[in-house]
Write a structure and sequence with these properties.
With about 130 residues, the protein is mainly β. Helix content is about 10%, strand content about 40%. The strands form 3 sheets. It has a 5-stranded antiparallel beta sheet with strand order 7-6-9-4-11. A 4-stranded antiparallel beta sheet has the order 3-10-5-8, with no helix packed on it. A two-stranded antiparallel sheet has the order 1-2.
Length: about 130
């Protein structure tokens, strides 16, 4: 968890040191103004690793690596790594949520896996197994 510094004048400072990440970011973007309980993401990446960082609100992150599904709530100062070949989604719980995403690659539409059945097919081929979800 990232440390939050509260100032007596009001407000919070939430720093992130790139040296604390396990990759050097090539791209940073924010996701804001998502209506309460709306879902974003719903894709995986062939190559890109991401760090999702909640700076305001409350965001539920769902992860599926083809064999294990989990969910985690991100509050301000919390972040989570999303490795490549992991299906993920984010549910924005307050309507005032702000998420910063740091990505290991530049934007490339060919890096996105938007079809979940194709995602499972890729995972099966990669690990040569039929034990994965479908």
């Amino acid at each position: 968890m990232i440390k939050i510094f509260t100032d007596e004048r009001g407000g919070n400072l939430i720093p992130l040191h790139f040296s604390d990440l396990n990759f050097i970011p090539k791209r940073i973007f924010t996701v804001t103004d998502v209506p309460k309980n709306s879902i974003r993401g719903e894709h995986a990446h062939h190559e890109t690793i991401q760090y999702l960082w909640c700076v305001k609100g409350k965001i539920l992150v769902g992860l599926d690596n083809g064999n294990y599904v989990s969910e985690k709530i991100l509050n301000p100062g919390h972040g989570i790594y999303i490795e490549n070949l992991v299906w993920d989604y984010q549910k924005f719980l307050t309507g005032n949520d702000v998420m910063v995403v740091l990505a290991s690659t530049l934007y490339n539409p060919d890096d996105y896996i938007n079809d979940k059945s194709k995602f499972y097919d890729l995972i099966r081929k990669k690990y040569d197994t039929s034990n994965f979800n479908s």
